[in-house]
Write a structure and sequence with these properties.
Order of helices and strands: HHEEEHEHEHHHEHEEHEHEEHEHHHHHH
Number of domains: 2
Distance between the termini: 41 Å
Shape: globular
CATH architecture of the largest domain: 3-Layer(aba) Sandwich
CATH class of the largest domain: Alpha Beta
Oligomer: single chain
Strand content: 5-15%
CATH topology of the largest domain: Rossmann fold
Amino acid sequence: MSKGVFYDSVCAYFDRAAKHSKYDAGTLKQVKNCNAIYRMQFPVRADDGSIRVVEAFRAEHSYHRLPTKGGIRFSRMVSLNETVALAALMTYKCALVGVPFGGAKGGVKISPRSESEGFRERVTRRYTAELIRKNFIGPDIDVPAPDYGTGEQEMGWIVDTYKNIRMNEPNIYACVTGKPLGMQGIPGRTQATGQGVYFGLRSAMESTDVPKLLGLEPGLSGKRVILQGLGKVGFHAVKHLQNDGGALIVGISEQEGGIYNPDGLDVVALLAHRQETGSILDFPGAKNVDRAEVMEMPCEILIPAALENQITAENAPRIQAKIVAEAANGPVDQAGDAILRERGILVLPDLFLNAGGVTVSYFEWLKNRAGVSFDRMISRHEELNNREMVSAMETLTGQKLPESQRSHLVNGPDELRLVIAALEQTMTRSYNQIHDFWLQRELPDLRTAAFLMAIERVAESYTHHGIFP
């Protein structure tokens, strides 16, 4: 499928929401358009000594807030249109969850799975140098992060390259997020997007009207879930849905095929099975099925957590889920979205649901700017307060708590607990705001509500902060 379909879908969703906006056409055009695009081609030495020319992109969609923020995708299929579409989604996503960044995105046309570590490092460092040369990276300019095909290792190479070129610049480690903990990363970043999906789904299912609208009992307990894409996002989403929400994970779809078990799958055991065998297939107790068919099997919640354009006009009529939870960026194209809406299937839009990653990236950026971890200033103070409170309770009641329970109650929060609590608050508050906005403005669906809320927040920044001359 053409990557232009993804870009067209993002534009279509924008236009559908913009019809309900109070802002004039000129302001809306500025919000919609991409501010700057850098398309580059650079030589990199291959392992055999030959020279390969690598094509890459960086799109900075909106300067209403600085720095801009967005991941870097390594894929042979990445394109300029896809990069711009992802950058636009980042703008709206940040505005929606109250993260003060503009949107950006990067793409490098290599296949990370088939390339050596040495070649990936040379590509990453050269790409970083190109971004520096054109002022497309910096703590106050544009802050990359991991995306499909990249991770902590690539972010470590980026910050190392940046600090060696810009060695006298302050806040060097804030030039990129998603770094290893040893390079001033932040705990919780790896699971942030997936755990954010869980918090978002939990908020929707705990509301009174959404389960009633879909003919479901409130809450996640017992709800059947099918996942497409057992990567970092998908795994952490279903792990928390299973362990914390009591949901039943009945199906998984991956590149090598699909599995289904109506009695449920142990996702931790499944991941171990895949790491051992290289495949999710032949998992004990599960039936092997075609990977496309898994998405169409009976469930309450379907979570596409892979790439864009996975639900289209071709397969949308066969989706049996009550809720499609967009853990990936753009997994439902505009034609598929229209069919799902006509069939009364609720779509929890990517614009909101996968914002956990950029939320925790924001926390990492703040930590790097401050030069201190979040727990260092408060953890001991909280512990002392808790000790006094517990001691007072023991004195008043004349009873002593067991040491294990006492220790649990008095310990001050570590950085991971603080990060996850802030992520939970962000996702819960954002869902409630979108839900209320949806009802108050009498909008047709949650996606339109999310886009319109984001559009108006970006437009307000442009018009109220004197950005227009």
